[in-house]
């Protein structure tokens, strides 16, 4: 079995095709997934890296707004076309479209900014949660389960994720609440490139963001009739943080209805700094919602 972290880094090593029309064109590989569909976090991170390649190195990504348009095929590479929408005195805007078989699977607009000084405040990090070292890893929880999806969750992800109060891989334990927290970190040291850490955070942000919707209704990932798909994803980077150090990802769902659920997330470093905010709406369908 290949090293999951090496596979993750390989997906972000995009190839500049050298093509220049009205867009900059890059290509990147897809990671294998057990359901055959491209992981949303992967294509988000790749789209970010493609846009970064077209912006002055002093300008830093601060926001991303994207729509997942079609399921991606994990067996095929992806082409990324970056449109240089605007370069102002302080901000740059890019649109990245991800294509397979000539049709878009993701459309993202990203904004970059020159570093600047200004007013500051933030919502404080929760202070009464267990530390990651006191929580079980997915390997510890799932290694003994003889199921291909469980093996993927346990062994083939590039990130360690530790849930509070408990994961919802197989069952949903405890109260049916629309909130949770997850400690996340990469499984090894990452290169020092700050943009790679921002892309890694975008990648990991997609793993669990819809779980508060599922937890509220007692829906586990292993439920056979569950149909899930990310519809859109927004992310704001407030302060820099390394993705290879423990980060606390608090998540809540304010609403679900019409076969969709909305979830909001806040990501903190261990010093309590709010480093990013996330929002996603996804399709969440089960054949019997009351089961």
UniProtKB/TrEMBL annotation:
Source organism superkingdom: Bacteria
Keyword Hydrolase: yes
Keyword Magnesium appears in the UniProt entry: no
Domain Acyl-CoA thioesterase 2 C-terminal: 167-283
Domain called Acyl-CoA thioesterase-like N-terminal HotDog: residue spans: 30-113
InterPro entries, per database record: Acyl-CoA_hotdog, Acyl_CoA_thio, HotDog_dom_sf, TesB_ACOT8-like_N, TesB_C
Keywords, ordered alphabetically: Hydrolase
Gene3D superfamilies (UniProt xref): Acyl-CoA thioesterase, double hotdog domain
Family: Belongs to the C/M/P thioester hydrolase family.
Name of protein: Acyl-CoA thioesterase II
Organism (species): Herbiconiux daphne
